[in-house]
């Protein structure tokens, strides 16, 4: 038997250090060739590190959240044959790579939940519970953890079918769907709780925190909110989807808003710009590369719709959907997550009445889309029901004057309220 050492790879772009985000294996695991063993993060993207060999994990070279140099030892694997190990000081094995478990509480741990009381336990065979140790923190995404918390489920009782035992939504579904012997009753949602959980700020969450803090510290933010009557636009969207939806794909409001931004920016080049405040240089861009703020399980990412000025409604819609899917599944490349000149952010149905989005530096503007609602408005002295939506946009006041910001949003408003103008050259 030999030892194969995987070193932190050179990810390119002159990057000398990366952050270790998450392990998908532990010491003692038997892994297969091409199995992903870890996620690492650069300033721009999360990158999966696969194993080039099959074998047994001997040692892990770092903890999640640790910044590691390119070329440093990442993992040691016992393999058939000679391996690639050269005599060198062996890295100390890392016994536990998960985040620190919560401090012990005074009360005994709650038992895992059973099925709902309305479902008689006698109708099916109880599944035996083999819980993890209390000190073992199960692998699961933030979305899975929140769902389990809301349902009163202790994840240490849930079998994980993902890589390295990662608990997936499907595993929660399976757990909830059948009774569990020796698990006790599910706690009430109003039961007294004394538990707590420490969540290390690492990986994407750390990058988001750093970027948001930097943006608020450096940018002179101001926001401008305007309401828009999108009744005609929504009618056009529905008509186009009914006529071309099957052949060209369904349209959301976003490609129309992108189109309005592209047209309006022709008269406001100072808004489609980036500002290097250290060099004191503003760069106005001819190309409109729109960052599409996308929420995933691990946090906010901003993939970039490139050359939106040259795309049709349908091509931009398809690219927005592709980029959003890649970002949500952590598959977006570094190139797809960089180079935006202006950002569009939307919370969809959760958009609220107004918001104050944070400028995505070094850009100088971000356009925020709020929820569309039907409400009464007065037109020509008559009260009528219209579909209304607010745009809540923020700007860097060091570069963009308040008047220019207002005129830009008013131009976008005019295009969206008279959607035929979107297609008139």
UniProtKB/TrEMBL annotation:
Region of interest called Disordered, as start-end residue ranges on this chain: 100-143
Any matching Pfam family: Biotin_lipoyl
Keywords: Acyltransferase, Lipoyl, Transferase
Residue spans of biased composition, Pro residues class: 101-111
Biased composition (Low complexity): 112-128
Name of the featured protein: Dihydrolipoamide acetyltransferase component of pyruvate dehydrogenase complex
GO molecular function, one term: acetyltransferase activity
Subunit structure as annotated in this protein's UniProt entry: Forms a 24-polypeptide structural core with octahedral symmetry.
EC number: 2.3.1.-
Domain spans labelled Lipoyl-binding: 3-78
Family under the similarity heading: Belongs to the 2-oxoacid dehydrogenase family.
InterPro entries recorded: 2-oxoA_DH_lipoyl-BS, 2-oxoacid_DH_actylTfrase, 2-oxoacid_DH_E2_comp, Biotin_lipoyl, CAT-like_dom_sf, E3-bd_dom_sf, PSBD, Single_hybrid_motif
Keyword Acyltransferase: yes
Species whose genome carries this gene: Pseudomonas putida
Recorded superkingdom: Bacteria
GO cellular component: cytoplasm
Cofactor(s) needed: (R)-lipoate
Residues annotated as domain Peripheral subunit-binding (PSBD): 139-176
């Amino acid at each position: 038997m030999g030892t194969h050492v995987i070193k932190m790879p050179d990810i390119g772009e002159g990057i000398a250090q990366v952050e270790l985000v998450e392990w998908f294996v532990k010491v003692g695991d038997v892994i297969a060739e091409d199995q992903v063993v870890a996620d690492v993060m650069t300033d721009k993207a999360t990158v999966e590190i696969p194993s080039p060999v099959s074998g047994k994990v001997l040692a892990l070279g770092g903890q999640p959240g640790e910044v590691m140099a390119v070329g440093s030892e990442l993992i040691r694997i016992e393999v058939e044959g000679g391996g690639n190990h050269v005599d060198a000081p062996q890295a100390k094995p890392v016994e536990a790579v998960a985040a620190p478990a919560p401090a012990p509480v005074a009360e005994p741990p709650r038992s895992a939940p059973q099925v709902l009381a309305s479902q008689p336990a006698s109708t099916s065979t109880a599944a035996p519970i083999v819980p993890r140790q209390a000190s073992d923190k199960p692998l699961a995404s933030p979305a899975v953890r929140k769902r389990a918390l809301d349902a009163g489920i202790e994840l240490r009782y849930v079998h994980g079918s993902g890589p390295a035992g990662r608990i997936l939504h499907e595993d929660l579904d399976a757990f909830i769907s059948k009774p569990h012997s020796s698990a006790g009753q599910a706690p009430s949602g109003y039961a007294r709780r004394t538990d707590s959980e420490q969540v290390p700020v690492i990986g994407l969450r750390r990058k988001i925190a750093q970027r948001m803090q930097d943006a608020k510290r450096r940018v002179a933010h101001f926001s401008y909110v305007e309401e828009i009557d999108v009744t005609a636009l929504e009618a056009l969207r529905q008509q186009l989807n009914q006529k071309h939806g099957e052949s060209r794909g369904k349209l959301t409001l976003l490609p129309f808003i992108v189109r309005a931004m592209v047209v309006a920016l022709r008269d406001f080049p100072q808004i489609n710009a980036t500002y290097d405040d250290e060099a004191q240089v503003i760069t106005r861009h001819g190309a409109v590369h729109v960052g599409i703020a996308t929420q995933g399980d691990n946090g906010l990412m901003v993939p970039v719709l490139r050359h939106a000025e040259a795309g049709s409604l349908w091509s931009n819609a398809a690219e927005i959907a592709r980029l959003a899917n890649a970002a949500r599944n952590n598959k977006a490349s570094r190139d797809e997550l960089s180079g935006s000149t202006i950002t569009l952010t939307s919370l969809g149905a959760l958009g609220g009445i107004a918001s104050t989005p944070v400028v995505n530096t070094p850009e100088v503007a971000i356009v925020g889309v709020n929820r569309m609602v039907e409400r009464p408005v007065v037109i020509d002295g008559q009260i009528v029901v219209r579909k209304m939506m607010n745009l809540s946009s923020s700007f860097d006041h060091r570069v963009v004057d308040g008047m220019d910001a207002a005129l830009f949003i008013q131009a976008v408003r005019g295009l969206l309220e008279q959607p035929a103008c979107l297609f008139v050259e």
